[in-house]
Specification:
0% strand, 119 residues
Amino acid sequence: MFDIAFSEIFIIMVVALVVIGPERLPQVARTLGKFWGRLQRYVNQVKQDVNSSIQMEELREVERQVKAQADSLEHSLQKTGSDISLGLKQVENELSKLEPDPKAPVAPPSSPNSQQNNP
């Protein structure tokens, strides 16, 4: 994380020993260690939050894509359904033209006997 060489750490320790003194140095080192641990946990938590936010945004984008595809499919199915309905209506119209009108008078069937009696 930081580029600190061993010689730099050694110089910092010597200065801390001179400034703080040998009696309080262990207590200060423990306190600094606790703060360093808290800082690391905080940084890790922030990293996790950022990664979670990125994943949530990716999931939202996937959700948008799926919804767009579903809407497109629904539109396509509705168009196909309306085309089928239109085709069925056309077939029904053609069939109704071919069927005789049930209310029209029906001519009586001609019998073979009636034609033989007339000569």
